[in-house]
Known about the structure:
Strand content: 15-25%
Largest sheet: 8 strands, mixed
Strand order of the largest sheet: 3-4-2-1-5-6-7-8
Distance between the termini: 21 Å
Number of helices: 8
CATH architecture of the largest domain: 3-Layer(aba) Sandwich
Order of helices and strands: HHHHHEHEHEEEHEEE
CATH topology of the largest domain: Rossmann fold
Amino acid sequence: MEMPSIDQYEEGEQENDVENVLESQVGEETLYPGLSETSKRLLGLKEFRKFSAEEERNTFSSSDRMNAYLNLSTNTFPIDHKINYKKGIVRDIVSKDLIDENILKNNLTVYLGSGTDIEYPLAFGARNIWLVDPELNNNEAILELRERIEKITEERLSLEIQESFRFDFDFGNGKEEVMVDIVPKKYGIDGIHFPENIGLVILFASQDMNRQVCIGEDIRNNIIEGGYILNESDLEKVNNNIEGDGSLTRLL
């Protein structure tokens, strides 16, 4: 995440360094203990309600889905706080049924700048997933992805290096087949042909040469009516039937 320059701070908010975030203690209920409100704002961290262990079990009602949730990770600084942020996004969306899971059952989920982060789309309930990231263009990344799938499903996959994975996953109603296709390309630079049945587009700390990925018409035009765009903690629903202009309704 690109940090603001000193000129972008409001008067009186000057910070010497992004790591200088332990300004003041905040309430115990925060997901980000030790961070001031200014630091949370600068780091792009949104507060979400904490869940008890029982609430988490009720929200993620299978061992596979709970494993996906518990193993959420990120390489974005500050890592521990960003993981809590990511888990908060998933908890909020899944517990409130903000994404229609039937959309995810029957349509494609596209994760831009995914790396090997398979847990994130699985935690939401995605069954058909495109992981789009140039970093996936090597055997090490494919092996890491396979290991992450095996860790959350507790099943062994083929040792063959491949461009897609098929495996069974329990989202809460018994095992279902999940299809994961690897697209080792950089969105906006490398030409990618997207199918016309995109149900969800995910971005999390996704960056291009200008430090931010903007979803273009090549994706927007292929998102189905009622599909979703999730960019960090901003969840929007696509309303193609509103004057046919692909209007968005903010959900989160």
